């Protein structure tokens, strides 16, 4: 297969920050219509791969149903939940966090009154949640999670702190507000173009993180395509603890390492524990050792033995070394 090497020769990517939520990314140079194709491709991919943090579980002290009211609070349950859903969160170094509001009236409850067991940032701290008009305690417990874990239901949430009706919410938030791209031609050579991406977020994710996340997923998918087409790569031997070379057939990447851990048919508990620690591919799992896996919260010996058994069925094991980057 013969490639035209002059199609792409990107050598510069710059990010210019306009404000806290908006930046412009400049990629150069490009030839002809490839610039427009890649601009549209990156725009669509960023919308698909963007993530946010949202409230998945919420319970309010002395609440009975979604449309009921609370004594001493002007808003009903539905209005309070609607106000909470409009708060923009960012959780640092974790995929979930428990949030608490506990205020004694009369007062105005705002987003800045939220406390957490993890380090969080609230983008709109002045957002009003409820108005308390008498001396009552307004007590709310919430769980904020990463949007990639939207199907996980916390069965123990009902018994935490106090017993009350649990409201499970769906993710309707979008972290990306706007993405546009435009092309600039050079005056000296109109065949050479620059691509500009104008990206605006709601603050739950930075523009730079959004762009890196997009490129990460593109690389993952294209690596898989390259293995199917049998593109060769150097220095991709896999060695285990016994120094045995594994899967060194013509220096081709093993596509099994790029597959999701869901292909191992793990239990829901084991799968969720691994994903919460950013282990999504089989290749990312086999480089871990037993001590690293045991340190994962809620990942016990039963889960460890399950992983080792399923990897053995695939001809793999833990603590392998992969000399090429996944």
What would your notes on this structure say?
It is a single chain. The protein has 326 residues and is α+β, with helices and mostly antiparallel strands. It has 3 domains: 8-50 and 175-227, RNA polymerase, RBP11-like subunit (Gyrase A, domain 2), CATH 3.30.1360.10; 53-168, DNA-directed RNA polymerase, insert domain (RNA Polymerase Alpha Subunit, Chain A, domain 2), CATH 2.170.120; 244-322, 5' to 3' exonuclease, C-terminal subdomain (DNA polymerase, domain 1). It is built from 7 helices and 16 strands. The chain has helices at residues 34-49, 77-85, 207-228, 268-276, 282-286, 290-294, 301-313; strands at residues 8-17, 22-31, 53-60, 89-91, 96-104, 107-110, 115-116, 120-122, 128-132, 137-146, 167-168, 176-185, 192-201, 238-239, 245-246, 321-322. The strands form 5 sheets. A 5-stranded antiparallel sheet has the order 7-5-10-3-11, with helices on one face. It has a 4-stranded antiparallel sheet with strand order 1-2-13-12, covered by helices on one side. A hairpin with a 5-residue loop joins β14 and β15. α1 (34-49) crosses α3 (207-228). The longest helix has 22 residues, at 207-228. Mean pLDDT is 80; it is low at 1-7 and 231-252.
